[in-house]
Amino acid sequence: xxxxxxNPFYPISETxxxxxxxxxxxxxxxxxxxEVRILDLVVTPYSPARLRSLMEEFEPDIVGSTSVTMNVVKxxxxxxxxxxxxxxxxxxxxxxxxxxxxxxxxxxxxxxxxVVLGEGEETVVExxxxxxxxxxxxxxxxxxxxxxxGIVAEGLKRRPIDVxxxxxxxxxxxxxxxxxxxxxxxxxxxxxxCPHTCIFCVGRKMVGPKVRYRDPIKVVDEMEYLxxxxxxxxxxxxDLFTAKESHCLxxxxxxxxxxxxxxxxxxxxxxxxxxxxxxxxxxxxxYMIAFGVESGNPEILKTIQKRITPEQVIxxxxxxxxxxxxxxxxxxxxxxxxxxxxxxxxIEFGETLKAMxxxxxxxxxxxxxxxxxxxxSERFGIKILTDDxxxxxxxxxxxxxxxxxxEDLEGAVAAWDKELVEWLGYIREQYEKGEATEEEAWPxxxxxxxxxxxxLMVGGAIEEKGSWPTxxxxxxxxxxxxxxxxxxxxxxxxxxxxxxxxLRYAAERDNLVCVRENGHIRWQWVDDL
Length: 529
What we know:
By secondary structure, the protein is α/β, with parallel strands linked by helices. It has three domains: 2-153, Cobalamin-binding domain (Rossmann fold, 3-Layer(aba) Sandwich), CATH 3.40.50; 185-404, Aldolase class I (TIM Barrel, Alpha-Beta Barrel); 443-525, Arc Repressor Mutant, subunit A (Orthogonal Bundle). Helices cover 42% and strands 17% of the residues. It is built from 20 helices and 20 strands. It has helices at residues 20-31, 48-58, 72-85, 96-99, 102-108, 121-132, 176-181, 203-207, 216-227, 245-258, 275-283, 298-303, 310-323, 340-355, 372-375, 406-432, 442-459, 461-465, 477-488, 496-508, and strands at residues 2-7, 35-40, 62-66, 90-94, 114-116, 143-147, 150-153, 186-188, 191-192, 212-213, 234-236, 264-268, 286-294, 326-333, 359-364, 383-384, 399-400, 467-469, 512-517, 520-525. The chain has a seven-stranded mixed beta sheet with strand order 2-1-3-4-5-6-7, with helices on both faces.
């Protein structure tokens, strides 16, 4: 039994990370004896011909894809292409979008056979076993599928998974080297579940209201392994790492007991942190905490069931500053009850936090399938403007309120983006004048390198143009790099000198290597770490 898992395209602007959920599913399948490959289209080029070649070589019995709302269209393209290659193959999709629009997705995508609902590890293993034995899929819990008489909706019937029983994610199947080359973070989890009921989020419905914790020893075992892979940081991607103080402190204490030097970040709520907790987190290597603040208006915070206050935000930021952790705040514009006045209030609150040393950013409300704000949009006074899922990336207005238009929302975000671009330009100018260090200029230098390398990756330029004959003469590493920069010139928006600098940066860190064989030079990305 063979299974090909697909991570569909996701733009670099969304700061992607190695596909953790897909790696968990892959690990569960491998433990069950299934041979698995992952096709990661976030960092590798895609074409129907490439998929055909891979399927003909690997001969999978199942092709499965994950997706979120903004890339479900890309995932559907891969499913269609897979069915064209092999009409008899079983096609499966999972992830938050299809979990809450399963029937609609199956109706709109006739090439799709099965939708996995919620947590997928145990469900996908049962699907594989049933398909291998040609058993009726109706006996598999937690799916909606295309039966002989039409769509069969089973609904969410599985119990939450005991997260301590899951194998470690199958990261060996993911091209980690490409993510490292792009200076993107690794992610890991210490728990699953979210006890909160924010109306714009599906986290609670997706993984359950009860938080399930992993053994802190296993957590730090994994963290210790990840520190050896050469990434700049690890993101602890729990919905709420600070949900339970004793768990948070136990993880930190184990990091400290081992003397592990690791740089990490986490997600939190302002009403779940204390000075004691933050001090321990900082001591254990946490340098940034992201808080979902959402709005500066108390009434909107009540409407969206956030159950926090601006005063609690200020207190949490002060605690972070005192502990030496950088606080980061995210806001959502266009929430129910939004008016020009509440928008101004939120933007000003962001400036207040900025003055306190908080990095912050603004997104626009995207009413994802499964969210209360979508399912009860009329009650919340929200007008949904489009169901073009590719626009659901939180940077474009998808809704309007009675007193705030699409133009109002996009104008507010554009103004903030302009300010950010000006700040980055200032940093670049200071660096070029020698008045800022490389570390201080890291945001802009890293952004340029990342985008240049990313363009080369997803465009396949290294694979297509990165090999040439040496004509029997020795070629130094520097000459080979310059030759590569010449050959891929035009494959990105950057001039040749910046491409060369990005390539050199990748090569110096062993993310890009030069192979010399049979009188040829061949450059290639390092996928496996």
